[in-house]
Design goal:
135 residues; two-stranded antiparallel sheet; mainly alpha; UDP-galactose 4-epimerase, domain 1
Protein backbone atom coordinates (compact mmCIF):
# COMPACT_ATOMS: atom_id res chain seq x y z
CA UNK A 1 0.00 0.00 0.00
CA UNK A 2 1.32 3.40 -0.91
CA UNK A 3 -0.18 6.19 1.20
CA UNK A 4 0.91 8.76 -1.40
CA UNK A 5 -1.65 7.31 -3.82
CA UNK A 6 -4.43 7.97 -1.31
CA UNK A 7 -3.37 11.62 -1.07
CA UNK A 8 -4.02 12.08 -4.78
CA UNK A 9 -7.20 9.95 -4.86
CA UNK A 10 -5.66 7.04 -6.77
CA UNK A 11 -6.57 3.44 -6.19
CA UNK A 12 -4.07 0.84 -5.14
CA UNK A 13 -4.14 -2.65 -6.60
CA UNK A 14 -4.54 -5.58 -4.23
CA UNK A 15 -3.75 -9.04 -5.49
CA UNK A 16 -6.44 -11.34 -4.11
CA UNK A 17 -9.35 -10.31 -1.91
CA UNK A 18 -7.40 -8.29 0.67
CA UNK A 19 -7.87 -10.77 3.49
CA UNK A 20 -4.21 -11.78 3.38
CA UNK A 21 -2.34 -10.59 6.45
CA UNK A 22 1.10 -9.24 7.20
CA UNK A 23 2.92 -7.86 10.23
CA UNK A 24 3.54 -4.17 9.56
CA UNK A 25 6.46 -2.76 11.54
CA UNK A 26 7.26 0.89 12.10
CA UNK A 27 10.87 1.85 11.38
CA UNK A 28 11.18 3.30 14.91
CA UNK A 29 10.54 -0.17 16.31
CA UNK A 30 13.07 -1.72 13.93
CA UNK A 31 15.72 0.75 15.10
CA UNK A 32 14.71 0.15 18.73
CA UNK A 33 15.08 -3.63 18.36
CA UNK A 34 18.46 -3.36 16.64
CA UNK A 35 19.68 -0.92 19.30
CA UNK A 36 18.64 -3.33 22.06
CA UNK A 37 20.60 -6.12 20.38
CA UNK A 38 23.68 -3.94 19.83
CA UNK A 39 23.77 -2.63 23.39
CA UNK A 40 22.89 -5.88 25.16
CA UNK A 41 25.36 -7.01 27.80
CA UNK A 42 24.40 -10.59 27.01
CA UNK A 43 26.56 -12.31 24.39
CA UNK A 44 24.16 -12.89 21.54
CA UNK A 45 26.56 -14.44 19.03
CA UNK A 46 24.68 -15.27 15.86
CA UNK A 47 21.27 -15.19 17.53
CA UNK A 48 18.44 -14.26 15.18
CA UNK A 49 15.52 -12.13 16.36
CA UNK A 50 12.24 -11.21 14.71
CA UNK A 51 11.21 -7.58 15.06
CA UNK A 52 7.60 -6.65 14.43
CA UNK A 53 4.30 -5.87 16.07
CA UNK A 54 3.76 -9.56 16.68
CA UNK A 55 0.29 -9.47 15.16
CA UNK A 56 -1.14 -9.68 11.70
CA UNK A 57 -3.26 -7.10 9.89
CA UNK A 58 -5.18 -7.68 6.67
CA UNK A 59 -4.60 -5.52 3.63
CA UNK A 60 -8.28 -4.55 3.80
CA UNK A 61 -7.69 -3.23 7.33
CA UNK A 62 -4.73 -1.20 6.04
CA UNK A 63 -6.94 0.30 3.32
CA UNK A 64 -9.55 1.21 5.96
CA UNK A 65 -6.91 2.79 8.22
CA UNK A 66 -5.46 4.83 5.34
CA UNK A 67 -8.91 6.01 4.27
CA UNK A 68 -9.72 7.02 7.85
CA UNK A 69 -6.40 8.86 8.29
CA UNK A 70 -6.86 10.75 5.01
CA UNK A 71 -10.60 11.29 5.45
CA UNK A 72 -11.31 9.52 2.16
CA UNK A 73 -13.15 6.45 0.91
CA UNK A 74 -11.02 5.07 -1.90
CA UNK A 75 -11.68 1.44 -2.78
CA UNK A 76 -8.72 -0.61 -4.03
CA UNK A 77 -8.77 -2.51 -7.28
CA UNK A 78 -8.86 -6.24 -6.53
CA UNK A 79 -7.25 -8.48 -9.13
CA UNK A 80 -6.47 -12.18 -9.23
CA UNK A 81 -3.28 -13.06 -7.42
CA UNK A 82 -0.78 -14.22 -10.06
CA UNK A 83 0.93 -16.45 -7.47
CA UNK A 84 -1.32 -19.45 -7.09
CA UNK A 85 1.00 -21.96 -5.45
CA UNK A 86 3.15 -21.30 -2.40
CA UNK A 87 1.57 -17.90 -1.72
CA UNK A 88 1.72 -17.09 1.97
CA UNK A 89 -1.75 -15.92 2.95
CA UNK A 90 -1.04 -15.06 6.59
CA UNK A 91 2.23 -13.90 8.08
CA UNK A 92 3.36 -12.23 11.28
CA UNK A 93 6.55 -11.99 13.31
CA UNK A 94 6.97 -14.19 16.37
CA UNK A 95 8.61 -11.65 18.68
CA UNK A 96 8.57 -13.80 21.83
CA UNK A 97 12.34 -14.44 21.70
CA UNK A 98 13.37 -10.77 21.48
CA UNK A 99 10.79 -9.91 24.13
CA UNK A 100 12.18 -12.52 26.49
CA UNK A 101 15.91 -11.99 25.87
CA UNK A 102 16.08 -8.24 25.31
CA UNK A 103 12.81 -6.87 26.69
CA UNK A 104 11.68 -5.59 23.29
CA UNK A 105 8.16 -4.22 23.08
CA UNK A 106 6.76 -2.51 19.99
CA UNK A 107 6.16 1.17 20.73
CA UNK A 108 4.33 2.39 17.62
CA UNK A 109 0.92 0.92 16.82
CA UNK A 110 -0.11 0.47 13.22
CA UNK A 111 -2.67 3.28 13.47
CA UNK A 112 -0.11 5.65 15.06
CA UNK A 113 2.40 4.82 12.33
CA UNK A 114 -0.15 5.53 9.61
CA UNK A 115 -1.18 8.81 11.27
CA UNK A 116 2.48 9.86 11.51
CA UNK A 117 3.08 8.98 7.86
CA UNK A 118 0.00 10.90 6.76
CA UNK A 119 1.13 13.93 8.76
CA UNK A 120 4.61 13.69 7.19
CA UNK A 121 3.10 13.51 3.70
CA UNK A 122 0.91 16.54 4.39
CA UNK A 123 3.86 18.49 5.81
CA UNK A 124 6.01 17.51 2.83
CA UNK A 125 3.27 18.72 0.47
CA UNK A 126 2.99 22.05 2.31
CA UNK A 127 6.76 22.53 2.32
CA UNK A 128 6.99 21.71 -1.38
CA UNK A 129 4.13 24.08 -2.22
CA UNK A 130 5.69 26.83 -0.08
CA UNK A 131 9.13 26.42 -1.65
CA UNK A 132 7.59 26.48 -5.15
CA UNK A 133 6.28 29.98 -4.38
CA UNK A 134 9.87 31.24 -4.15
CA UNK A 135 11.04 29.88 -7.51
Amino acid sequence: MRPQRTVINRRDTIYGDGTQTRDFTNIKDVVHGITLAMTSKEKLGADVFNIGLGKSTSLNDIVDALNKAFGKNIKPEYVDNPIKESYIQDQYADISKIQKKLGFRPTVTLVEGIKNQVENLRLEKVQKTSSDDFR
